[in-house]
């Protein structure tokens, strides 16, 4: 019997994808025209990039996913009870991906017979299709409304449902990709669409041995390098770029003073790259870098401050056994 997909809305896309391409071309042109070249990390996640990120989550060095899996598994009952305390709620999952971790909570909520619906939001349309159909099969009692789009589209969704009860999930240390100022603005916006009784569960990677952090973003098998370099392949595929990808290498550094992991693509030679959709040619000097990603690592004090600056107060902090990762449950203050 053919699978019927759960209702799915695509807020961000024109039918022909031309709007996406134009925005991508503009962001790439802007980033590569800077004095210090940069590309936004949200463009990592095309089909190939999402598959590479799946592989990253299985790497021995990439502890983040396993740690959070442990936190959610060990605390699922308490978390689900907190969520469902005031009756019906929308469970909004920002950057849901394959939702392997969220499924721990979904199963528990279903077991407790909580009344809720599930709203995963992700920029990968492929991922949202797969998730909708896998949930249909695995948890047919859960009502799913997937949203394909960027975070600002998630904010629009929150705004449209302002009066209804909501629990927002922001797992996986996705917050870490923001600059501190951006994270304040983003959480502040989320907060403005919540009200008393609503909650935010946010996953944060905590400060730890810098070697452990560095290895997680520079694995021995080279999967993270491939993930980073896929951004150039994607520009070639979607924007008619002529990057010779083998002439770039992945480089990652961790600054323990700031608690920021930074990733780069470094040009090994002096070269020029033409990108048709931008109508431009970009010059690289030998060993010139493109900054592609930040991943912030937090102290608990910082997380509390971040929350309180945005109108949230900590209800409970759930740690993994190593205390290297935390899922922080906030209520609105
Ligand atoms: C999905 C943003 C949490 O920053 O750890 C993994 C992405 N980049 N390896 C992270 C990522 C390189 C990841 N987040």
Automatic annotation (TrEMBL):
Keywords: Methyltransferase, Transferase. SUPFAM superfamilies: S-adenosyl-L-methionine-dependent methyltransferases. Signal peptide: none annotated. One of its GO terms (biological process) is methylation. It holds the Pfam family Methyltransf_33. Residues 24-330 form the Histidine-specific methyltransferase SAM-dependent domain. The keyword Nucleus does not apply. One of its GO terms (molecular function) is methyltransferase activity. The keyword Lipid metabolism does not apply. PANTHER family: ERGOTHIONEINE BIOSYNTHESIS PROTEIN 1. This is L-histidine N(Alpha)-methyltransferase. It comes from Pontibacter actiniarum.
């Amino acid at each position: 019997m053919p699978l019927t997909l759960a209702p799915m809305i695509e807020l961000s896309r024109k039918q022909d994808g031309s709007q996406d391409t134009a925005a991508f071309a503009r962001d790439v042109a802007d980033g590569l025209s800077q004095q210090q070249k940069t590309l936004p990390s949200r463009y990592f996640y095309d089909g190939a990039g999402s598959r590479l990120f799946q592989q990253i989550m299985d790497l021995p060095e990439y502890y983040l996913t396993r740690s959070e899996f442990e936190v959610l598994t060990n605390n699922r009952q308490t978390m689900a009870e907190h969520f469902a305390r005031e009756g019906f709620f929308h469970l909004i999952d920002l950057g849901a991906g394959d939702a392997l971790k969220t499924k721990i909570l979904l199963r528990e909520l279903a077991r407790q017979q909580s009344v809720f619906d599930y709203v995963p939001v992700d920029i990968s349309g492929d991922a949202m299709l797969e998730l909708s159909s896998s949930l249909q099969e695995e948890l047919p009692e859960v009502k799913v409304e997937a949203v394909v789009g960027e975070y600002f589209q998630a904010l629009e969704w929150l705004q449209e449902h302002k009066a209804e009860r909501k629990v927002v999930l922001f797992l996986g240390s996705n917050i870490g990709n923001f600059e501190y100022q951006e994270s304040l603005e983003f959480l502040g916006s989320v907060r403005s669409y919540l009200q008393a009784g609503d909650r935010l569960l946010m996953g944060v990677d905590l400060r730890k041995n810098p070697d452990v952090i560095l290895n997680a973003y520079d694995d021995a098998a080279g999967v993270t390098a491939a993930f980073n370099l896929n951004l150039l392949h994607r520009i070639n595929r979607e924007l008619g770029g002529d990057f010779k990808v083998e002439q770039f290498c992945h480089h990652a550094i961790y600054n323990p003073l700031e608690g920021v992991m930074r990733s780069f693509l470094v040009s090994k030679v002096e070269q020029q790259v033409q990108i048709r959709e931008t109508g431009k040619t970009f010059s690289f000097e030998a060993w010139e870098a493109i900054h592609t990603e930040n991943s912030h690592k937090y102290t608990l004090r910082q997380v509390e401050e971040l929350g309180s600056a945005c109108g949230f107060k900590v209800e409970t902090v759930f740690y993994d056994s190593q205390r290297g990762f935390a899922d922080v449950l906030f209520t609105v203050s």
